[in-house]
Design goal:
259 residues; seven-stranded mixed sheet; six-stranded mixed sheet; 13 strands
Length: 259
């Protein structure tokens, strides 16, 4: 099981503790983050005072990705200090880990680190070529497709195309403070139910939510509510559920098969 969200901890919002309590319900799951872990500036005090008392109680089983707020501290140094080896090689912000038979690619979507000639791109192509698997997920912060105000982030399209060409099944993002699920798409935003990647945006980890949305093509579910995405990763197939905070009529769940 893989559970998590992005856009998480702010000392001015109760949402991070509310979503951390959801993580408490799944003590055997691997936790992911989709960036912007500690607001507002990703500095040592933000991690110590905001993230650590809430999501920090799950730090030992958390595999994070960085976001732009983490990089408001130069080099995201506090992020790498806080998560240590769980964040992959220091200073890179990209690495792989496995959950069951699934391969997870945790990537860095800072624009200076995500270009077509970047070291991250070379590394990703090498990983995909040398260690193929049947089922895989990529996690990063800035979504290529979104109904929120902070996109599209087209500079990530080159990475998305490499993932598509290598039959990656799911992409998870944050950045826009909402939950959104897209139908499987190709890198140009065309519906593709044969090889398309299903994208989840889960910027719902605890910071204030966005209400100003314009529904993007192929968006299937969209809501601004705190919560976490739970994925059950089985051989050859997966189940998803968005688990919201508190009493709400919004639910989203379903299943899919690997390419």
């Amino acid at each position: 099981m893989l559970v998590g969200a992005g856009d998480i901890a702010s000392c001015e919002s109760p949402g991070d503790e509310a979503t951390a309590r959801l993580l408490d319900l799944y003590p055997d799951a691997t936790i992911f983050t989709a960036g912007d872990n500690a607001y507002m500036h990703g500095n040592p005090s933000d991690f110590r005072d905001c993230y650590d008392p809430t999501w920090g109680r799950h730090r030992g089983r958390t595999r994070p990705a960085p976001g732009n707020h983490d990089y408001e501290t130069p080099g995201a140094s506090a992020y790498f200090d806080y998560f240590g080896g769980n964040a992959g090689p220091r200073g890179l912000g990209y690495y792989t880990f496995d959950v069951g038979s699934w391969r997870i690619y945790s990537l860095n979507s800072e624009p200076s680190l995500a270009g077509p000639s970047s070291s991250q791109m070379s590394w990703l192509k090498g990983e995909l070529a040398s260690r193929p698997v049947n089922c895989s997920i990529a996690i990063w912060h800035h979504p290529v497709f979104t109904s929120g105000p902070n996109g599209p982030n087209s500079y990530m399209r080159d990475i998305l195309r490499v993932l598509y060409d290598n039959n990656v099944d799911i992409v998870i993002n944050g950045h826009d403070h909402l939950y959104e699920r897209f139908a499987p798409q190709d890198p140009d935003g065309r519906a593709d139910f044969t090889r398309g990647i299903r994208q989840f945006t889960v910027g719902t980890g605890g910071v204030p939510l966005y209400q100003n949305v314009t529904v993007a093509p192929n968006s299937e579910r969209l809501q601004s509510v705190w919560g976490v995405l739970r994925l059950v990763l089985n051989p050859g197939e997966y189940e998803w559920e968005f688990v919201p905070v508190g009493e709400t009529s919004f639910r989203d769940s379903g299943s899919g098969k690997c390419h």
